[in-house]
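Work Package 3 (structural annotation) set out to generate three-dimensional models for the target panel prioritized at the project kickoff. During this period the team completed the workflow that converts sequence records into discrete structure tokens, so that structures can be stored uniformly alongside our sequence database. As a representative example, we reproduce one entry of 275 residues exactly as it appears in the project archive.
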Amino acid sequence: MNPFISFIGGGNMARALTSGLLRNNHPAERLCVSDPNIEARELFAAQGVCVLSDNVQAVQQANIIVLAVKPQALAAVAHDLGTQLRPEQLVISIAAGVRIDTLRRWLGGHSRIVRAMPNTPALVQAGATGLYAPSEVSAEERALAESLMRAVGVCVWVQSEALLDSVTALSGSGPAYAFLVMEAMQAAGEKLGLDAATARLLTLETIFGAARLALESNEEPSVLRARVTSKGGTTERGIAALEAAGLMMAFENALQAARNRAAELATLLDAGDQA
């Protein structure tokens, strides 16, 4: 039987996950969403999903509980749920920056916790999610967590919780980097004389096509890049300009800065709760 999954919080990611699960034929009657906002509940109810305004009631029959509230609100939510959880219930947190030790303390010592770090393309079922679980979580429970998150894209497991900060820096923040590249390419195309609509279309289809080509190829991006960079040609000249501007180092610095900030925020959330 399909697990009964309760979502605490009915924001964008909960909507993406429930939509993905329904698309994968998970029964609507085995899904529940708790949210204080009536408009949010109505969106889920329209899909046939159970909706509640009471978090405690929502977790009573759940096999899997997905904590999908903002990190700043998670402490209060978790404290309310801590005394209600059964030891066998699996908790999946998609709240960025809340470490498992912190969440375990908020949940009154509950040990079956998986952290998931999805990204915004999950909203169109094209997400990339990093997952981490401590040793208390069984292989079967890991499989359940992965199955849930695969409803919105690909999943990868990391061997240490600290590596989730690296996942955050790469795929969590990564869509913004890609949008910035698109923004820059479109603006440069317009400066070369293309109208805005044409520059936008060419930019988006080029990025999409390159990503699809890379996904469907067994070769590294560096090999694919070299293949379209003819000696003495236009692409070679453009690549040389990007390298001269320090593109590779700029991305390395960006990811390091984002990873460091992710670790800082986790420490601040933990310290704030204990203060």
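The chain has two domains: 5-161, 174-253.
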